[in-house]
Amino acid sequence: MKHKLLWIARFLVGITFIFSGLVKANDPLGLSYKMQEFFVALHMPFLNPLATGLSILLILVETVSGVAILLGYQARIFALILLLFIVLFTFLTGFAWFTGKVQECGCFGDCIPISDAATFWKDVVLLGLIVFLYLHRKEIHPLWKQVSGPLTWFAALSVIALQAYVLRHLPIVDCLPYAVGKNIWQEMQPPPGSVPDQYETTLVYEKNGVEKKFTENDFPWQDTSWHFVRRETRLVKKGNAIPLIQDFSLKTLQGEDVTQQVLRDSTPVFLFVVNHPSKAHTGWDSAIHNLQTFTQHHRVLLFGVTSSSHINDFLSQHHLNFPFLIADVTVLKTMARTDPCLVLLKQGLVMGKWSYLDIPDTAVVSRTLSE
């Protein structure tokens, strides 16, 4: 009986950790941004510069531990690692749920968002399973003595390679609101059939030194002896009319809002996103210069987008002759997982998205625009 329970626990824990690790390996930057939220909430912002490196390491260890416990490789070591992991995860998900300071822990990345409560109870179940595995770790033997080790380390190399690829290019599966095929303008609107928040307004008036609250329906309008003091508004019923995209806006360097112009115009628009000009990767100059020339001879617009107002040196250094717009830094981190990144829009629809290493040539651009 114990042998069967060990196998069930190994299977459930191993598959969960492998799946969770691979989902996050598709977008390690997404996990690093979530880690920064936790660092701030826990009053440890000094760890923010380490977030990307810690994210890559956590994903690697999480996935490899799942593979190792499933295959029975070095069970004594990896059972301990899994125990340390799940204790940390349970604390963090509990912190997120009970304090409300972090929305969604990101345990399954952005592709599978689950509530903080569900995540916490999932970790409690895993904690029980892993404690059982840890107590019986000496009874866990390799599934295949000759290949369990090589398979575990092959999995480690595969996770490293996957993360290296998506960090230089883009996530293989884009689950964010700015993914190819999504319409940014539509995502900025409340979902169809949603209900807005309902508020009640209370008017506070004073008469003969006594304050009294009235609603707009029961206020004695004929009695002019009441004197207005203040207006109070309270939330009566929480709605669900929350757009997936809430903070997207584009402004010129002079402060003019051109969001609707960019998103509603029928003319295709390229957005060259350079979130942090001083930290942006290189190796894209030739491709962007070719695109710059292409847009000058075709009915296509090209804008740069950045969160920095200090862009002039960057423009001069890279010989860029197209205008730059200003957007929120968090919005750009969500829209573009590489810095720089090229996005093609037509009436708000994301028609294409490319890393700075994959900026298409004019033939591909022409073909994409004709689709």
Strand order of the largest sheet: 4-7-6-5-8-9
Total number of distinct structural domains: 3
Major sheet: 6 strands, mixed
Give the overall shape: flat
Distance between the termini: 60 Å
Report the helical percentage: 40-55%
Rg calc: 27 Å
Total of helices: 12
The percent range for strand residues is: 15-25%
Structural class label: alpha+beta
Topology as H/E string? HHHHHHHEEEEHEHEHEHEEH
Q: Could you give the count of β-strands?
A: 9
Mean pLDDT, rounded to whole units? 89
Low-confidence runs: none
Subcellular location: Membrane
Transmembrane segments: 49-71, 78-98, 118-135, 147-167
Domain Methylamine utilisation protein MauE: 3-135
Membrane topology: Multi-pass membrane protein
If you had to describe this structure to a student in words, what would you say it looks like?
- It is a multi-pass membrane protein.
- It is found in: Membrane.
- Keywords: Membrane, Transmembrane, Transmembrane helix.
- InterPro entries: Methylamine_util_MauE (IPR009908).
- It holds the Pfam family MauE.
- This protein has 371 residues and is of the alpha+beta class.
- It folds into three domains: 2-168, no CATH class; 198-237; 251-370, Glutaredoxin, CATH 3.40.30.10.
- The protein has twelve helices and nine strands.
- It has helices spanning 2-25, 28-41, 51-71, 75-99, 116-135, 148-168, 184-187, 259-264, 285-296, 312-318, 329-335, 362-370; strands at residues 198-207, 210-215, 227-237, 251-252, 269-273, 301-306, 324-326, 341-346, 349-355.
- The protein has a six-stranded mixed β-sheet. Strands 2-1-3 form a three-stranded antiparallel β-sheet, with no helix packed on it.
- Helix 10 links the parallel strand 6 (301-306) and strand 7 (324-326).
- Helix 2 packs across helix 3, helix 3 packs across helix 4 and helix 3 runs antiparallel to helix 6.
- The longest helix is centred in the first third of the chain and has 25 residues, at 75-99.
- The model has no long low-confidence stretch (mean pLDDT 89).
